Amino acid sequence: MATAVMIKHPQSGVVRKGYFGFSWTYLFFGFLVPFFRGELMVAALHLLFTVVTCGLWQLVVAFLYNRQYMTRMLVDKGYVLADDEQRNAQARKALNIVA
Asked: How far apart are alpha carbons 33 and 43 in whole angstroms?
């Protein structure tokens, strides 16, 4: 089950909710999850892969999506974990972040 954790972009101050763990939302809604999170290219690729694999992609990626999303947010876009220390520690452990 996915667990929510707050993340913050230090330069802009934007605070968003991130998730780690299995994504039930992705399992049921597939490519719409990255679409509504503003990742249009990721959504397009996921739609393509879901169609090509007749839905098998959606089953597999439900286990991986939240981790990939958080990696893109923390590493590529510069967000940092901004929840209470216990929740941050859970997220670091689940995402294999060494800090």
From this structure: 8
